[in-house]
Amino acid sequence: MTVRKGKRWEILHSLWIGWTFTLSLFNWVAFLYIGFRTRQRKWMLWGLFYSAPLVTEIVSDIFIGPPVNHPTWLVTLTMILFFGLGVVSIFHAFRVRKEYLMRLEALKREKSRKEEALRRQIIQSTNQGEPAVDQTTDAVQPPGKTGPSYAPREETRFSGQPDQPLPSKRDTLIPYG
Questions:
Q1: How far is Cα 47 from Cα 30, in angstroms, rounded to an integer?
Q2: Whether 100 contacts 94, CB under 8 Å
């Protein structure tokens, strides 16, 4: 199954992949974003996992001090995590992109269906026991009565009086002279 919305829609809803090119600085934002948009816990957990290098660096700076005071093994581990998980997250993002787009489209379609059902329900509850509104003319008609005698009277732009024809363009021109 492919996305039915078109290429433009796919591209616009794939811009989140750009976050992964920050190589572990903000790549986790991309996975948290798609997880929240599609209500998928697995992608939210991946977002937390990909934030590990940044959290490790922040925590070590707080408790150990500046990077010059860090043990060599901790600096090496942090660098491997930063670049390794950064590159992996880029490939991971492209791998889950199609599933994300399909889930997002399905959620939007479901939301649209629910909104339409609510709209119909509101219209039905509003019209029960009240005069119906003719959708073509916006005329209010008593229940059970239809026809031209209940059509709205036409008003003119100039006088506001019903049943008077609109003046022609020739009548509205001011002669030079």
A1: 7
A2: no
Domain membership flag for residue 140:
no
In a domain, 120, yes or no: yes
In a domain, 156, yes or no: no
Q: Total structural domains in the chain?
A: 1
Q: Supply the range of the domain harboring residue 83.
A: 7-125
54 alpha-carbon distance from chain centroid: 29
Tokens of 102: 């399909």
Q: What tens-digit pLDDT sequence spans the chain (177 residues)?
A: 456 778 888 888 888 999 889 877 899 999 999 999 999 999 999 999 998 888 888 888 888 777 777 778 878 888 888 888 889 999 999 999 999 999 999 998 888 898 998 888 888 887 765 555 555 555 555 555 555 554 555 544 555 555 555 555 555 555 554
Residue with tokens 């022609």: 168
> In whole angstroms, how far apart are CA 140 and each of 56, 95, 124, 125, 147?
68, 56, 16, 17, 11
